[in-house]
Amino acid sequence: MTNKKTYADGAAGAIGKIRAFEKFGSILGLERMNELMALLGNPQDKLKVLHVAGTNGKGSVCRYLYSVLQENGYRTGLYTSPFLEVFNERIELDGAYISDEDLTEYTDRVLKQVQRMVDAGKQSPTEFELITAIALLYFYEKGADYVVLEVGLGGRGDSTNVCKAPLISVITSISYDHTDRLGDTLAKIAWEKSGIIKDGCPVVTSAKAPEALEVIERTAAEHHALFFETRRIPYKIKEQGLDGSCFDVDFQGVLFEDLRISMVGVHQIENAIAALAAVNLLEERGEVRIQKDKLYSGLQKAKQIGRFEVLTAPDAKPVVLIDGAHNPDGAKVLRDAMKTFCPSQRILMVTGMLADKDTTGILRSFRDITTDFIATEPANPRSMTKEALKDALQAQGARCLALLEPEAAVEEALRRKEDYDVILFAGSLYLIGQIRGMLREAVR
Questions:
Q1: Which of these, 263, 197, 187, lies nearest to 228 by C-alpha position?
Q2: What is the rounded distance in angstroms from the CA atom of residue 378 to the CA atom of residue 138?
Q3: What residues contact residue 70 under an 8 Å CB cut-off, 6+ apart?
Q4: pLDDT tens digit sequence for 219-249
């Protein structure tokens, strides 16, 4: 699968039309989405959906589910956000991003119905709602057997929640992020994310915080939905490294030995177990048929770009890593992974982040990774200035150089490669998306 490409003229035009809807901002609520999908014939009601929400880990769980279903011969769609390098990443079917031609066609078709809404005096859909509608129509008309649907923000009022009867709802970790929209306690955030739970639809959660679990379990009970939590599923790690992990899992008395994953870290083992639980529940209910060898190969083939991704070849020095950690919980997971896989190594970290994040909490974990930093600014109007980021790092005792352009930060970091064992880029998915292609070319 190609991750880097050039848009055709038609796709560039379609993306421009979609981005014109940025002016409507991000407004939670399903009124506009329900109206738009009705005009499109409600294709979402004819899809078999696996719906995944959570603060961190939901993208990886989606990848595991997507890969396992594909490996078992099912035509499977995947809807994720945000994209890193190319817009087409957001809509994927059977291992291929939506083509420029299809993106152009489906954008125009959905926009015709948007215009009908506006002409009738209805409120316009937002950008994310528009993209979600494009994806759902595309998956239906392309004959997807299953669709793995990642929530964009929260759950209850997210546009993906237009799906009324998913086969299963998965809720991953619950931690603090988007608190201005989702609430300032874990219970409030869990309530928003539990909004994807539907009547009779099984619920799997890998959340650990007791106050979040209580909300999720109570919501499942209110909807007469089977509730399954994965935090106490026993597993034994046999191998760990920058190429992934090997582990055993005892799933309700059934032993899965020597499972291998290519995504790095204990948190990815836990994400894989959440996906395994979802697949097993679906199989018990007769919704899917999964071959054990294909389950194993599907888990091992799953990869999530931009999440503790090693860009250099094995044994290369320095190791070049990128990670999309952009909230305190994600930063802690990154810190723990670095301490596990890169102990006592000389690390240079390039970071840039958005000012509306909990930068103090994020930087506390980053400072535990290393004392050497380059601060930069992702191409986003919400970016924290390089000077403010530099000052914050220096206040914690770090050494830091500030460079405005991420591309200049990459060049400076690679110029210093003889001085370090690891060069790590993290702090914002916008930063990672901006530099990933450049880094892959540089370290090839």
A1: 197
A2: 31
A3: 76, 94, 95, 298
A4: 999 999 999 999 999 999 999 999 999 999 9
